[in-house]
Design brief:
The complex is a heterodimer of chains A (321) and B (539).
Chain A lengths: L2 H4 L5 E3 L6 E6 L5 E2 L6 E2 L4 E7 L2 E5 L12 E2 L2 E7 L2 E6 L2 E6 L4 E7 L3 E6 L2 E4 L2 E4 L2 E7 L19 E4 L6 H9 L4 E6 L2 H16 L8 E7 L7 H10 L3 E6 L2 E5 L13 E4 L8 E13 L3 E9 L5 E5 L3 E4 L1
Parallel strand pairs in A: 1-25, 15-16, 16-17, 17-18
Antiparallel strand pairs in A: 2-12, 3-5, 4-11, 5-10, 6-9, 7-8, 8-9, 11-12, 13-20, 14-18, 15-19, 19-20, 21-22, 21-25, 22-23, 23-24
Chain B lengths: L6 E7 L3 E10 L2 E11 L4 H15 L1 H6 L15 E5 L5 E6 L2 H12 L4 E6 L5 H9 L5 E6 L5 H20 L5 E5 L18 E4 L11 H11 L5 H16 L3 E5 L5 E6 L11 E5 L11 H8 L8 H13 L8 H20 L3 H4 L4 E4 L9 H11 L4 E8 L4 H5 L4 H15 E9 L10 E7 L2 E7 L4 E4 L6 E14 L1 E11 L5 E4 L11 H13 L8
Parallel strand pairs in B: 1-4, 5-6, 5-7, 7-8, 8-9, 10-13, 13-14, 15-21
Antiparallel strand pairs in B: 1-2, 2-3, 10-11, 11-12, 14-15, 16-17, 16-19, 18-21, 19-20
Helix pairs in contact in B: 4-5, 7-14, 8-9, 8-10, 10-12
Classes of the chains: A mainly beta (321), B alpha/beta (539).
């Protein structure tokens, strides 16, 4: 290995595909798990019943080995015993929680979480809003495009859309209303994120809810084109059933036979700064260089397709593995 | 270090920056040979290779003699490593019988390396409290009461203990602390020896009783951060440095996930000194979720124009990729975010120690690694406003935390005795008089250095810079028109000052600092102050 190639190890790596991932479904006291550790689940299986508007109640129970914190009785989920009576999380209306992925239930803690070891592979995101969902992947826009409300129609119902570099809250709520199951986007601004989350809260409070909908953000809060390696992989998955989960934020897919492209090892992507979004080839470590604002940063030489070689701060680079 | 190596590597694996320093024995003493700071997330072994390669290029004979001459990986027996890393602060759920106790426990835990969520019986019903404790993100539970429990707590204490014991039974792996009077509820936890997670009895919080959190804070810090955590190691290192230099030292570390403030006085009279350490996750430079108060805090200090939404986006980006976009406006954002974090840190550590100007203020953080050293001084004195005179220094090679991780205190002091001069990049001296009256002139300053004297008019509201190179010393003689506070009250002062990269900085601005309300005027003023110490800040 040449010294220049070895120094490439200083560049932060971003894993394009994770081999396996444990996904978590949060539970609150009163929610009823429908699965047990070690069980297998398939996409669409109900794994829990979520209790709406849980309330605190009391119950008088005969002591037995089954009467313990976290156990369930006809009154609800037992919390703790106090002065001969049990405090209970009770409620009348429940709604199902379904897993969007196949896997094996790893852990069930009533009132806390269900953890499933998902089968298949995952592509990590920065954040996912909404709830776990599943749909057919559809590439809607190019890497640097922005999806507008007018581009949506009911023909996209049931799909998870890849929408490019940016999307606004109005488009997200419209997509959800049209039956789109999810959105994958490069950047989501804080204002859009806040507006969408407020809309989600209103939606959750409604009696007649829409199907689960998730927004998976791959890059950050600023407008930034999707990385070429990511787009290549998403294109390879287009038309297949995929899932978006929120904890951890990720796109999951089960495509064992699919040969996913591997980026060249010396390909680097510029994540920040004036050249953000461009890709080039690593040409070696330069040492400390002065950049705008009078700051001194460790820099690398990056060769671009147009033949130019420029000094770029190491921190602005990333590479996919 | 059990053997006697001739060189070692100090590695600080921060969340945003990885720092590697090589130290070796030269002429019978430990010396800093070189250091390198690179963005976090890369391979630290490659950073070591690059540093060693540069050392070989600079002095091949020395590198060879210290065991760093060969090609390939270094022999860990010849060149051992002291490695510290920044761990993400864990989350502590706190429940108490009264809101007053919950607040005191939250205050103490929030200064002891924990991210906190809390509730009290007065404000939260048992269902919501159970949900809070069962949150899968919770790493430990603390429940507490005053010691002895007050009347308003006593009635709720038993039921609260029962509730926590029920949660502890459902999540047997997580540790539970019973603080203060809550120890009375231990019996409801049953056989605690059979439980995988510990159930610990802890002292009550003494927050708000003199600025020292006491033994509870020490216990919480030990539970929160492992011994190799860089922030935990800063405490012992500062104490060792205070002993070696025989100076009162304040160390400030601004971190991606938490910030640290340490006060240490030299050991005296055969009694070992004990540094007071505060690790404050809510003073992180890049908070998880920048809320309105965070955004407002950064807006106050920003020198570039940005609306609230855009600034929030930029803070989110800083959280996601702290190593990226560090030039241009990104540098200005970092300095504003660092000052805002320092404000939060100061607010959480505003005890008795913080009111006295220490002999030396030491800054150590990856956030300073790219900016000119004089700008660091200004960032610190913008926020840490107190009358007095102090020297300022920068731990430029991020050695402090790795040295603090040396388990033996004597060995730690021995290394620091050798490398103190290499560790401390002198930023200069800062003199801050308080109580100046507005007007054209507050008095005169004469700086006597090397047989020459420099005379300056002291104009209230501004910064006066006097060139004083690192290593130089001088006597600064102040003659004020009116009585001011500068340690003591008076009109005439003679202060011994040391030089540095920023020279002598006489800060005649208000204590505390008052900034214009209008954003454009505030930005211009901040940029003007910064421009005097940061060449090219606006290019």
């Amino acid at each position: 290995m040449t010294p220049a190639r070895g120094d490439l190890g200083l560049v932060r790596t971003r894993r394009l595909v994770e081999a396996s991932v444990d996904i978590r479904f949060r539970l609150a006291p009163g929610d009823r798990p429908l699965v047990a550790a070690g069980e297998s689940v398939v996409p669409g299986s109900p794994i829990a019943e979520r209790l709406r508007d849980a309330r605190l109640a009391e119950a008088e129970l005969t002591p037995s080995v089954y009467v313990r914190p976290g156990a369930r009785t006809s009154e609800g989920e037992l919390l703790f015993e106090w002065r001969g009576r049990w405090r209970v999380a009770a409620g009348d209306v429940t709604e199902p929680v379904e897993t969007p992925v196949a896997g094996i239930v790893r852990e069930v803690t009533p009132g806390s979480a269900i953890v499933i070891s998902a089968s298949g592979r995952a592509m990590a995101g920065i954040v996912a809003l909404g709830g776990p969902t599943r749909g057919r992947l559809h590439i809607m826009a190019g890497t640097d495009a922005e999806l507008r409300t007018g581009s949506l129609d009911v023909g996209l119902a049931g799909t998870i859309l890849v929408v490019g570099s940016r999307v606004d809250a109005e488009t997200l709520t419209r997509a959800r209303a049209m039956g789109v199951r999810g959105i994958i986007v490069g950047g989501l601004a804080s204002k859009e994120r806040r507006d969408f989350q407020a809309s989600e809260r209103r939606q959750r409070a409604a009696l007649h809810r829409l199907a689960p909908f998730a927004v998976l953000v791959l890059e950050g809060a600023m407008r930034r084109p999707l990385a070429g390696a990511v787009v290549t992989m998403l294109r390879a998955l287009a038309g297949r059933e995929v899932a978006v989960v929120t904890d951890p934020p990720a796109l999951l897919f089960d495509a064992g036979e699919l040969s996913l492209p591997t980026p060249p090892p010396d390909l680097v992507r510029i994540r920040g700064g004036p050249l953000a979004g461009r890709t080039g080839t690593w040409s070696g470590l330069l040492g400390s260089r002065r950049f705008a604002g009078g700051v001194h940063l460790e820099a690398a030489a990056v060769r671009f397709d147009d033949g130019r070689t420029l000094a770029v701060p190491l921190g602005d680079l990333e590479r996919f593995v | 270090m059990t053997s006697e190596p001739h060189a070692f590597l100090a590695v600080d694996l921060g969340a945003a920056t990885t720092s590697v320093a090589a130290l070796g024995r030269v002429a019978g003493a430990w010396r800093l040979l070189g250091s390198l700071a690179v963005p976090g997330g890369g391979d630290p072994d490659v950073a070591v290779e690059v540093l060693v390669r540069r050392l070989r290029a600079a002095d091949p004979n020395l590198a060879e003699r210290l065991g760093m001459g060969g090609i390939g990986r270094l022999d860990p027996d010849l060149v051992p490593r002291l490695v510290v890393r920044s761990h993400r602060p864990p989350r502590l759920a706190i429940v108490a019988g009264s809101q007053r106790t919950a607040s005191a426990l939250t205050e103490t835990a929030g200064r002891s390396g924990w991210r906190t969520t809390s509730a009290s019986v007065e404000t939260t019903d048992p269902l919501a409290m159970t949900a809070l404790l069962l949150d899968p993100d919770v790493d430990a539970i603390m429940t507490g009461a005053s010691d002895p429990p007050r009347a308003d707590e006593r009635s709720a204490l038993r039921e609260l203990a029962t509730l926590v014991a029920a949660v502890a039974a459902r999540r047997p792996d997580i540790p539970v602390l019973l603080a203060g009077g809550m120890a009375e509820g231990l019996s409801v936890f049953g056989d605690i020896a059979a439980r995988p997670g510990e159930v610990l009895l802890a002292p009550a919080s003494v927050a708000g009783t003199g600025g020292h959190d006491g033994p509870l804070a020490e216990l919480l810090l030990e539970l929160a951060l492992p011994p190799d955590d860089s922030r935990r190691a800063v405490g012992p290192a500062t104490q060792a440095l205070a002993d070696v230099l025989e100076r009162r030292i304040e160390t400030v570390v601004l971190g991606h996930d938490a910030s640290v403030r340490v006060f240490a006085a030299p050991s005296a009279g055969g009694v070992a000194g004990h540094a007071r350490v505060a690790v404050v996750p809510s003073a992180a430079v890049a908070p998880d979720e920048p809320d309105d108060s965070h955004v407002d805090g950064v807006i106050v200090w920003t020198t570039v124009s940005a609306d609230r939404h855009r600034l929030r986006d930029q803070l989110r980006e800083l959280r996601i990729a702290p190593w990226s976009d560090a030039a241009g406006d990104g540098a200005a954002l970092r300095m504003a975010a660092a000052r805002a974090a320092l404000v939060r840190l100061a607010a959480h550590t505003d005890g008795r120690d913080a009111k006295l100007a220490p002999d030396l203020v030491l800054a150590s953080s990856g956030v300073w690694s790219a900016v000119p050293a004089p700008a660091v001084t200004l960032a610190l004195v913008d926020v840490l406003r107190r009358p007095g005179a102090s020297q300022y220094a920068l731990d430029h090679a991020r050695l402090l935390a790795p040295i603090g991780a040396i388990p033996d205190a004597d060995e730690r002091r021995a290394v620091l005795r050798d490398i103190a001069d290499d560790l401390l990049a002198p930023l200069g001296s800062v003199v801050t008089p308080a109580g100046l009256r507005a007007g054209r002139s507050a008095g005169r300053l004469v700086v006597h250095a090397g047989g020459t004297s420099t005379e300056l008019d002291l104009v209230p509201g501004g910064l006066e810079l006097v060139d004083l190179a690192p290593g130089e010393t001088a006597v600064a003689e102040f003659q004020f028109r009116d009585t001011v506070r500068l340690g003591a009250r008076g009109r005439h002062f003679a202060v011994d000052v040391g030089g540095g990269l920023a020279g002598l900085l006489v800060d005649l601005r208000d204590v505390p600092l008052r900034l214009p309300d209008r954003a454009d005027r505030r930005r211009d003023l901040l940029a003007a102050w910064q421009g005097a110490l940061w060449a090219g800040a606006n290019t």
